[in-house]
Design goal:
Distance between the termini: 28 Å
Number of strands: 9
Radius of gyration: 21 Å
Structural class: alpha+beta
CATH topology of the largest domain: Butyryl-CoA Dehydrogenase, subunit A, domain 3
Order of helices and strands: HHHHHHEEEEEEEHEEHHHH
Low-confidence stretches: none
Largest sheet: 7 strands, mixed
Shape: globular
Number of helices: 11
Mean pLDDT: 92
Number of domains: 3
């Protein structure tokens, strides 16, 4: 497998990185995190003008097309900047779900504005009972009242919920809560009656929220009776999100590694730069190996999403998430140890890298959950 970026991907990565270096420095990120919204409409507009919000959205519906591999350098750049914008929530998760299950008319109405960044979606799927088992534990119910559909239930973790114009909500038409079948996807206006949002911040300052639905009016995406298509759309959305998170973690690892190598090569103790000590050199070498392994696994995750016909794709994705999660935690923990006390301060970026990794590791199932999935997929 070729793990190198194409010239076009490399050019996109470099251009995006240059823009983020200027517009999304760590101090500017801290100011954005301290704002009421927790993200920057100005920076989001910049991303739309840059074209990255159109990646992965079909060309027939106003996007640039492409798959997880094409989005890989973008997510790595966002990880390096510890981006707080609603890209994962809207462009990756929301748009993927719509493109997988909605009718052509619905896609025409929704996706062009998502591609330009004018409209933002949020993926409302996770519930308290579905922790690390995303295809089960869905208790939100959909029922038909006259010529309308209404939803009742609660979604526990909706990324960038307060920034969304519409929610893509999974709800059950039938079956038991511990079964993956009987689901459908619905579009809910963020201002619809019967919706109540409790916003909060995750440990890395990412905005999120709990969405409560009590008779909320909803529009089914596609045919609500086609449970097989809805289930396939949920699986595709979760897989796409997992690959994006893997790339995001790699970018965050790169920032933590760069900060650490710069620190140990300038910090002096007892008249010597601490990077000259052999024990620290070994720790840096271990970090470098982990980073290179994670880079390769992120590519494998993206390829697994784009090439679902491959017999290895079902296991490559959880294997990549498992490995990257462990490498990322080890690298960021080592980075803080080598920095000493400064690594845990609010004013220094390396501690924020570990916080971001902690959140990304848990999204779509942490390392233990991925190991369980691999075990279930491995023939005994």
């Amino acid at each position: 497998m070729n793990f190198d970026l194409t010239p076009e991907q490399e050019q996109l990565s470099q251009s995006l990185t240059r823009m983020l270096d200027v517009q999304y420095s760590f101090e500017k990120r801290r100011a954005i995190a301290a704002s009421d919204a927790g993200w920057s409409p100005d920076r989001w507009r910049d991303l739309g003008e840059f074209g990255v919000t159109a990646l992965g959205i079909p060309e027939a519906h106003g996007g640039l097309g492409g798959g997880a591999v094409d989005r890989l350098p973008v997510m790595q750049a966002f990880g390096r900047a510890l981006l707080l914008e609603p890209y994962l929530a809207s462009t990756v998760l929301g748009a993927t779900a719509v493109s997988q299950v909605a009718s052509e008319l619905q896609m025409d109405a929704l996706l062009p504005a998502v591609a330009s960044g004018e409209r933002r979606l949020a993926w409302a799927h996770d519930e308290a009972a579905s922790r690390h088992v995303p295809l089960c534990g869905i208790e939100t119910r959909a029922r038909r009242t006259g010529d309308q559909w209404v939803l009742d239930g609660s979604k526990s973790l909706v990324l960038h919920a307060s920034a969304a114009d519409h929610f893509i909500v999974s709800a059950r038409l039938g079956g038991l809560h511990d079964e993956p079948h009987g689901l459908a996807l619905f579009l809910v206006d963020a201002g619809a009656s019967g919706t109540q949002l409790r916003p909060f911040r995750l440990v890395d300052d990412t905005p999120a929220g709990e969405l409560r639905l009590a008779g909320a009016i909803a529009v089914p995406l596609g045919d609500p009776a086609d449970g097989a298509r809805a289930l396939a759309a949920v699986r595709a959305t979760l897989a796409t999100g997992t690959a994006a998170v893997c790339a995001d973690m790699v970018g965050t690892m790169e920032t933590a590694f760069a900060l650490t190598t710069a620190y140990v090569n300038t910090r002096q103790q007892f008249g010597r730069v601490i990077g000259e000590y052999q024990a620290l050199r070994h720790r840096i070498a271990e970090m470098a190996v982990g980073l290179e392994m994670a880079r390769s696994m992120a590519v494998a995750a993206a390829v697994a999403v784009d090439d679902t016909a491959s017999p290895e794709s079902a296991t490559d994705l959880p294997r990549a998430k498992l490995a990257i999660g462990r490498y990322a935690r080890a690298l960021c923990q080592t980075a803080i140890q080598l920095h000493g006390g400064i690594g845990m301060t609010e004013e220094y970026a390396v501690g924020h890298c570990l916080r971001h990794i902690h959140v990304l590791d848990h999204l779509f199932g942490d390392a233990d959950a991925q190991a369980a999935r691999l075990a279930s997929l491995t023939p005994h």
